[in-house]
Amino acid sequence: MRRTTAGLGCWLVQPVYLLVELLVAAGASAAYSLRDDTISALGMLTCAPGHAGSTVDVCSSGHVALDVAFVVFGLLRAAGAVLLRPRLGAGGWALAAVWLWVASALFAAAVGLVPVDQHPGWHGVVALPVFVLQPLAVLVTAEALRRSHAVSQGVAVSGLVLGGLMVTSAAAFGLRLGDPTWVGALERLALWPTYPWLAAVAWALLGARRSETVAKV
Fold first, then answer.
1. Domains of the chain: which residue ranges?
2. Which residues contact 72 (CB under 8 A, 6 or more apart)?
3. From the CA atom positions of the chain, what is the Rg in Å?
4. Going by fewer Cβ within 10 Å, which terminus of the chain is more open, N or C?
């Protein structure tokens, strides 16, 4: 019971990451664009172009908050997956989902330890796998939930739809990395759906657990 509660908490708080990112973006220099500039630019310690195709420097006064958020919310995603493993269903799909969440979350956490302006090489090494692993984690988790009926089919199918959107956006992001516009929007479409969807899954699992408890009484 405590294991499940802790896991649900780890996933329920994931949307808070979006709030942190948006607050940091709001505090960045006026040149920063959510549409055109990368998320990593908000974690830079110095003023530098917001993406590879830009020549305009952006400054992020909240870089520490975002880098810490990368680490904290990444570790929470990984912990949540491990703790909720029994609730995701039996079989290989659920196990694969856990491994994908752990791997993607650890790479995402590492992003906060190697800001792009300080360690560009290492930043690329740890950031790029996230764009493959995180969308796959959503897709595989959604399929595991669809097969296990642990949550409503609506929640599971929404994960398949969002996962498809994320994969497509991640591919488009990779193709436009050196372009001057829309890089930030594509990056966010590739990653942002993760956070509210995990919270929705956790909420659905919480409801299912409550129903089980009532049924036993």
1. 2-216
2. 109
3. 18
4. C
